[in-house]
Structures are given as structure tokens and as C-alpha cells.
Design brief:
The structure is a homodimer. In chain A, a hairpin with a 5-residue loop joins β23 (about 395) and β24. With about 450 residues, the first copy, chain A, is an alpha+beta fold. In chain A, α1 (about 60-65) packs antiparallel against α2 and α2 (about 70-80) crosses α4 (about 90-105). Chain A has two domains: about 5-130, Fumarylacetoacetase, N-terminal domain (SH3 type barrels); about 135-440, Fumarylacetoacetate hydrolase, domain 2. In chain A, about 55% of the residues are buried. The first copy, chain A, contains 13 helices and 26 strands. At the A-B interface, β7, β9, β10 and α8 of A face β7, β9, β10, α8 and α9 of B.
Amino acid sequence: MTQLNQTHDAQLTSWVPSAQALGCDFPIQNLPFGRFQIQAKQDDWRIGVAIGDQILDLRSALSVVAWPAEVARMLGPLAAGDLNAHMAESSVNRSALRAALSTSLQTGSAHQAALAKCLVAQSDAQMSVPCRIGDYTDFFTSIHHATSVGKLFRPDNPLLPNYKYVPIGYHGRASSINVSGTNFKRPLGQILPPGQETPVFAPSKRLDYELELAAYIRASNVQGEPISMVDAEDALFGLGLLNDWSARDVQAWEYQPLGPFLAKSFASTVSPWVVTMEALAPFRLPFTRAEGDPQPMPYLTSKANSDSGAINITLEVWLQTKTMADAGAPAARLSTSNFAEASYWTLAQLVAHHTVNGCNLQVGDMFGSGTQSGPKLDEGGSLLELSKGGKQPVELPNGERRTFLEDGDTVILRGYCQSPDGSPSHVRIGLGEVRATVLPARVG
Amino acid sequence: MTQLNQTHDAQLTSWVPSAQALGCDFPIQNLPFGRFQIQAKQDDWRIGVAIGDQILDLRSALSVVAWPAEVARMLGPLAAGDLNAHMAESSVNRSALRAALSTSLQTGSAHQAALAKCLVAQSDAQMSVPCRIGDYTDFFTSIHHATSVGKLFRPDNPLLPNYKYVPIGYHGRASSINVSGTNFKRPLGQILPPGQETPVFAPSKRLDYELELAAYIRASNVQGEPISMVDAEDALFGLGLLNDWSARDVQAWEYQPLGPFLAKSFASTVSPWVVTMEALAPFRLPFTRAEGDPQPMPYLTSKANSDSGAINITLEVWLQTKTMADAGAPAARLSTSNFAEASYWTLAQLVAHHTVNGCNLQVGDMFGSGTQSGPKLDEGGSLLELSKGGKQPVELPNGERRTFLEDGDTVILRGYCQSPDGSPSHVRIGLGEVRATVLPARVG
């Protein structure tokens, strides 16, 4: 696990004033990476670091400061828009770059004048997905989600017998992963109307979101050589948010016996910023099992994982309907949950499990956490859960109701870390947000 | 559908003598693409075309002949080892390259002297997977396989209600796809011993092969815009063989509710040569539905597909145990089946289905056909089927028996097209073979 260092010091401030704004996701203690181009110029893609409401453009920054040689070397691929190359750097090297960026952005830095010219307003940037994503694997780590959804299908036996032993996962579709802001059409597909035996082809009527974390992988193990729990934490580069949109009616008809397919592959949406594992270091928590639950198998166990395998991240779902947007009304919060509480498995366990059969991970692979639902009924990370399978509509502040998503609905996922008592010992480290709007289905 | 042209003429012969050998997979009518380097030199990867037991090295060939400008342009990326760039070319362009290669390799060609120096013996070549594979989707198209396997789990209700409506598929793991000849260790994983409630962690005892075709995709539709049946055939670049190795005991414990994961992702193996759809044109057959079966939905229907959507490809599984190899005994054929007979869906239908929800395909994506089992009991494309779920061992010619694969077993899949009566009107167009050996499981 990354040790705390001077970059985590809660007293640090930046010469970028907005980094100190109340509730800001991107203070100087965060320094997440994103890939962008300047909207008006449509020029080459480059990697930037979010600071306050600005982006430090690493392409410009490379040339205006006399960086130490090792830092300059690492800035090269980042300036060219290649986050994967940086992800593959050793943890020592990545820490060195973080320390250099932290120092340069601190109040009083000698580089302020030069770097101030390298700032781009986030509102002027066109973001892309943060890296070249290879394979995408989606997990199912929230036992509360697994239980709630299982209950809809099997009231007497909601949780399958393998759940407490196997970190259940499946392969997802990588090509249709979009960055926040990419709206998409409601999918069409085969749907079995209730009580019938012959499916119809129609737009999905049960379109849903799923509140997930995205974990970006930086390891590349040789096929046949698993990543042990001792090395698994180092396989993780950082985290973002993921909305794993799901067409529940398509899913119900297609998913036996090989799992979800077209119900998910029409679109998945990720947040633009990757918050590094180093930035998240102050928010680690012990990993524990409830009394009576089986202990994880040895290949899913390590002391470091028991001590601090979990991460205290607050997650939120917000919805803004077209009616709300037209009336200038803000989005309404539908639910909140916490990653440490929702997830039955840690990210390191997902890495160790994924590779224990010899499967090789590659730099830029993405893991979805699965829907992060908390233990309470109003902590469900999907409308399927909040509406009890579509039976109890969710009431919105303006009197609208939702069982599933309607055209024009905008879903926003947010995530952030903060010390539970709100004390200033840890500043807020935010993941930012991922948002997209449901467009009407294609006609014909 | 590709029209027949002069490259399909069964009377054509090549100045490469082995191309006329009896039973040769790679006569001049085939011209499949593969990616290779010369073993002894370990130099840059390049694309070649198989002819007889040789490879025409397109890197060398580019410089020794005064090709027409358009052909020379297309040879550029191929010389650099980039098959994806060629896959993205229009069908007119790809046909033009095929015609130029066919002419140059024909008996009497003016280019014989120059191109003879560009031949590399296949035995001297190190092959790689043929292209950069993006997403890998595995289907489940053999109704006989679905029924046989379903019967093992649900004797009274073997085929699920969605099967005859939905071309069932799921996302596979792309990173662990290897080329033929890449041996792999038996995977370890969680297994539930019969009659027990707690899993153990152990090497798979029910390791199996799956006889599949690999279809390489050349389309790149915009997300949200499906590929209709009219355009679906043009989305296909060509075919190879795929062994989708499966750990049945791992699969049985892990696969509910989200499908196969670690039971498959340890290794998949493809043949090195991609036989183009144009080369397969003489072997197309009508697509039909058995009486009483539902007709495919309109989005899975076209006249061209009804006329010639199926492909007459004979498929074979061969096994050589370590004992057989040590005794110098040849591999034994375990089963044979035919793609047109085994598959309930055509490749064009898989393309149309995959994209009907808006999912975007990319050049280099790979589709697995699913296990191609024929209607007869001895036509099963896996040991799971041939051994009735591990209950009836398969007898080998040397007296050995197999329920599942043992360490040291080499599995070879072969495929070829030939006119049913063996008449010379169509020469044999082979897919070559895919082979790999099971190595002992990693210890500890």
C-alpha cells in the first residue's frame, strides 16, 4: 500500500485559487490524470492533471520548466496523450512525478509564472476516455446488489451459493466505453413481453443505470503467471466512475446461459479523471468479513489487504429529467452508498482472482466494480433496486416518478473521499462525475 | 456475397509446386493471410500469404515487382505487419489485391523469378495471431451443442426458450488469445467437489477443448448505428479456427449468474491463417430453418442470407496423447462436423445481432462461432459431449481412454472446404490447423 508522504499533507495549498474552493474535487492533494484536447483548437490529444477548475496541460508544461531529467522523460508520453506508458512506470517513478507536480503547483512555487500559462479551463477542454482500454471486465462485488437483484428473481434464495467464495465477474465490451458527456440512443432489442412465449423487437422499456467504480490496471503479467495478493495492489493505477447502463428487459430474455450481452454493450460511460491509488492512500480501511461468513481462500488473502484493502469512497447517483432541466431545476440525488461498505471484495482480490487461472492482464485494462449498492433499501445503485423491480416508482422532487429511465433523463454519478467526521486532517479527494443523457431510440 | 471470379478457377495452378499437392490446404485459389517473422532472424513482423507449404513474404514482394500503384499502396501496411489496415480496405480494393497476387503466383507468371526469392518455408516461420484483435465475442451457434450440453444439466428441458430467437453470445477475453503452437499450463481455480458445499482450490480436472471457427471483423460502425443484414456480410474479413479451451469444473461453479469467466480466460488458441470470405465464395449454401422452427426476426433476415448465408466447411478434432507422441503414433481423429449443418445462425446474422443495440464493432474484432457440434452423438465438438459429461470415456486407437484432457495431450483442430462429391470443380480450400499441448499446472 502506498505510504503517506508530503503530497498528502492536508495543509498544502495551490497557487491555482479554485483548488481551495469548498467542495472542490481536485485540490492539490488529488492530481488526477485525464486526456484532453482544447475544444476550440481541435488539436492533438494530450494528458493533463486536474487542479481546481483548471487542467495543467502536460504538453505545454513539459517545455516551460527545466524539469529534472527523469520527470521530463516521463512527461514525454503524457505530452503525446499516452497515459498507458505512464501507467506502466514503476511506483517509485510515478511517485516522483506526482511529487514534482505537487511541488510545482504549491503556493509559492518558483514555477508558478511559467505553469500559469499551461492552465486550460476544464470548461474549454474536450475530454476522451483516459487511456487505451484493452479488455474490460465487470465484477459484481456488492453483496447488497447481488442480494437485492437475486431477491427479484429468487425470493427464497436470493444469493447464489458461489457468491461468498468467488469474486464473480464477466467480460464486458470495451469498444462501446465512452467518456462522460457522450449521450446515447435508447437501445432496441429482443424483449419477451410478460406472459408471452414469443419475443418482440422493440426499444428497451426498462433502461437503467448502474453505479460503479472503474479501476484502471497498470500490470502486465505473463500468461500463466498469476498476480499474487502481495503484488495485486501494485497492479492498480487508479480509479474513476463508471455507469454500466443496462437494458433490463433485453437482459432478462438474453442472459441465460452465458450472461449479459446486448443488454450492456450499447454504451458504458466513464468519468474523464483517473484518481491515482497514491492520492487515495489516506482513505484506506481494513478489509473484514462479517461473523459467520467464510474467510476468503488463501489466494485471496494478505496481511496488507486485511489491514487496508478497502477504500472509503462515498458514491452518489443524481438524476435530472428533461422536465427538470427545462425548468432550470437542479438534478435530484437518488441514492448514496459507500464503496468500503458495499463491496464484498477488495480491488486487490479482483486482480488476484482474475489472474489465478493464468489470465494475463495488460496495461490499460479496466475493471468495473459492479453496482455499488449499500445495505439499506434506499442505497440501491440502480433503478431496478430503488423501484423494486419496477413495481414502486421513485418520487422526484418535482412530482415526477420513475421506475426506469425515460428519454431526456440525465444520470450523473459522483464519488469522493473525505474523512468521516469532516475534519480537515484529510481534504476531499473527488473522482469528479460521469454524466450522460438518454436519447430517443433509433427509428426503423 | 462475393461473386466468383477468375481467382476461383479450379483449373488454376501455381509455379509453387507444393500448392498442387494432394490435400494441400493452400492452393492458389486460397491465398490466406498470416503474420510472421523468419524464425532464425527474429526480425520485424510482416504479413504473408500461404501458398502450398510456403509463404509469400509481402515485405520482400513489395520491392521486387513493379506492382500497379494501388496494389503497391495496399502492400505497404502488409509489409509492415499490419493486417488490420488491409482488413479496412473496401471489398473492391481487397479483390484487386487478391487478383494481383493470384496472377503473380500462377504458372507462367512473369513475376516468378522475382517472387521465388520472396518465399519462406512455413516451417521456418514464427507466426503470431493474424491481426490486432480488439474485442472478442464468443457465440453459441450450434443448436446440437446447446442441446447436448443443456441435456447434461436439464435432461427434461435441454434447450432454453430463447435459443431459437436469440443468437446467444457473450464477451470473451481478448488478451489471452494465442496463436497455434502456444502451449499452456492447466489452469487452477475454485472447484466444488461433487456432493460438497465448500469449494477447493485446485488444478482443473475437467479440462476440455471446443471446436470453433474464428471470424475476423473488418467493419467499424458508428456507435448507435447497427449493421443491417444487407451490409453484414461485408463486415466479415475471413475465417480461421479457434480452440476455446474450457475448464468445465471451474465453469460449473463460477458461471451463475453472469456466465463463463476464468473457465475460459486462461487461454484461447487460433490458427495462424485467415482465409478470406472471397476465397470461401464457392462454398456458400442456402440458410434454412427446419419446419416448425420460428423464422428469424426481420432484423436477422435478408434474401442474400437465405440464398447463401451458410458455408460448407468440414471441421475435425484430432488428439495426440503424450503416449502416442512418444511412440511416434499419429494423432487420432475424435470427431468431425460441418459448419453449415452445426450452426443455427449465419455469420451475417451474428454481425446484425451484435450491432442491433447500437454496439460498435471495430476492425480486428474476433467472433467465435461457439462449439460446432453436429446432430449425431459422435459429432460433438468437445469432450464434454463425446464423454457424456465425463461418464463414458472415449477410446483411443492405442487403448488409452479420455473423459477430459490430460497433461501432455495435444489437440489439433482442422477445417477445409471441398465440394461434397470431391469433383475437381472446386479445389480444397483449407483453414490449416490450430494445435496446442496441455502443460502441467503451475505448482504452488
